[in-house]
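BUG: 3D viewer hangs when loading the predicted structure for this chain

Environment: internal workstation, default settings.
Expected: structure renders.
Actual: progress bar stalls at 90%.

Input used:
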Amino acid sequence: MSKLLHSLDDNVLCSQLSNIIQSADDVTNKLTAERLLELPSIKRKAIFVVNALEKPKIKLVADELGEDRRKIGKVLKGLAEDDNILSYFEDENEKLKIYPSKVYFISDEQINKLLSSTDIVSTSSSSSQADIFAEEVAGADVDLKTINVAPSENKFISREDAQHFYQKVPTLPSTAQKIISVLNATAKTAKAFSEELGCDKTTANKYLKQYWDLGVAHRAQMPSSSTGRGRGEFLYFLNPSISPEIKNQYLHSAQANSEEVAMSTDHAQQTPAEQSVETNFDEPFDTFEELSKLANLLDQVDKCETKLRIHLGDKVENLILRLKNKS
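Structure tokens produced before the viewer hung:
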């Protein structure tokens, strides 16, 4: 593989595209970045290779990605014929061959514009993973120069997966829900979370690790001492691809759905008699009509009591009394 794309890590690509979605002023660039995020990883990386290498053949793209040539041929064909992102032409030097090589290029105008106007995946050897990560978590109130972290450890999460996760939050334990509610762009240790929420540090660390495993949270590791040596505590913060606004929107929606389900469950557990006497206070109230309904119900009760006394005698009195007290 050439030195050109040593830094082509799909997690980094996704994180940078997410940053564009959150910060770009150009709406078209935001929509284009969202479109790229929705593609499978192999297609996304192939697009960046084609852009970086300027009209490569299938073999060169396959070599850069370390993938089988036939597999990449199908990927590039799909990007051209199904996604309408790439186009190709036959190599001028191979026109006399039965199967001349195809040369691919990006034909989608918006993607071309995005890749030419933003510095996604720097090809400079001076651009390190640490530099990329520092941009990724900019804004956290931590001195990122003191953080020792490998960005590839952090996972990308799609919007669909994030929304699915937040829909499950109301079913989580109380402490787990509280941690999610305060997880934001500010990088904090498990100890800081536990002190803020008044919970055990071990519990906070357990849930933060689970959120990191799911991709909801990202983390960075601090040095263990002022010398910058050794392994220190992890700092956890919200995945940059999930803005606080989106997180709050998902949480609000999940809470509303949870309350609706709870109300439906309560209603389903009621007996038919309980459901029939529920009052809808939004409907017009007719005093005479309601009194008539009550009189009819009481009359039915009296008739039932009479039948029970006729068939069971005095021994039914205690049972009737208990039923009245319970109701």
